[in-house]
Amino acid sequence: SDNWVQPIVNDRETGRVRVAGAGVRSHAGPGSLAILKFRAHDEVTEGQTAWFEVLDADLNDGAIPVEITGAPLAPAPASITPDRGAATGGVVVRIQGANLRAVDGVYFGDAPAEWFEVDTLRSQVRALVPAGTGDVDVRLTAFETEGTLEKGFSYFTPDVQLTIAPPAEVDLANTLTTPVEITAIRGAPVGRIQFNLNYDPRIFAAIETEAIPVLAEPQQDADVETELLRPGMLQVTVNSTASGGLSASAITHCNLLAVGYDAEYPSLIYLSDVTAHSTTGARLSAGTGAR
User: What is the distance between the alpha carbons of residues 51 and 135, in angstroms, rounded to a whole number?
Assistant: First the structure.
């Protein structure tokens, strides 16, 4: 109808379009009330998935009942990185695939992930792996549909376990001090360990000052080095200077400065890319956890 107003309200922040009009000719039976055309932005790359949903409909100010129909596509997970982690859980994985926009649950076997985040721009889901054993299916749910990556994740018992214990909260412009603890599960003396500390750069910053060092109170008989790989990822290397290796305690405290807060983007601090070697230089398997 020519009486439709020029489309509408397009809110790019929330991704919602509101269509409104008046004076449409009366019609009985099926037909098209409006046809919406969408064009992808220039930064969208080939292979990304778009997802549409009608949230609300109102005809004649509610005088005519409206039923919204249309089944959402089931999630289709294609890959998971990393695909293995310690039996204690605590590793953050990236699940990529199609139709992930409406994911409302992530499961490893029958155990739900306590935290997950949908990244629609990259068609992926990040999830915190719960504790478990063996090879398990990774299952994504969305409304009444689901998709499964069979035997997508494997649990193992590592030689060395790193555990991160960030405080539950921190005030803006204050320092968040996060202990990183080490446990030699199989008793092998650890001579060197390297890991990445991941954090939300919109909320935290790794800023080195005389009053607030990035690393504080490293354990005795150890040299600690840091490198900011990119905003949101700090690489930490700990080398033992003692013949007995690193002791089972907090190997270091990582300090992050709280620079912002957004309730819609809860921050998650976690460890990744852990490598460990014994005092003789042998490679040790390593896992991460959180508490």
Answer: 31
Q: Does residue 1 have a pLDDT over 50?
A: no
- The structure's pTM equals 0.71
- In SS3 terms, 85-105 reads as EECCCCCEEEEEEECCCCCCE
Low-confidence winner among 169-183, 190-204, 259-273 (lowest mean pLDDT): 259-273
| Pairs from 111-115 (Cβ < 8 Å, separation ≥ 24) | 115/268
DSSP code, position 244: T
Q: Which of 80, 69, 78, 74 is nearest to 99 (CA)?
A: 74
As a whole number of angstroms, the distance between CA 216 and CA 122 comes to 35
Assess whether the previous peptide bond of 82 is cis (omega < 30° from 0).
yes
What are the pLDDT digits (tens) for 177-186?
888 888 877 7
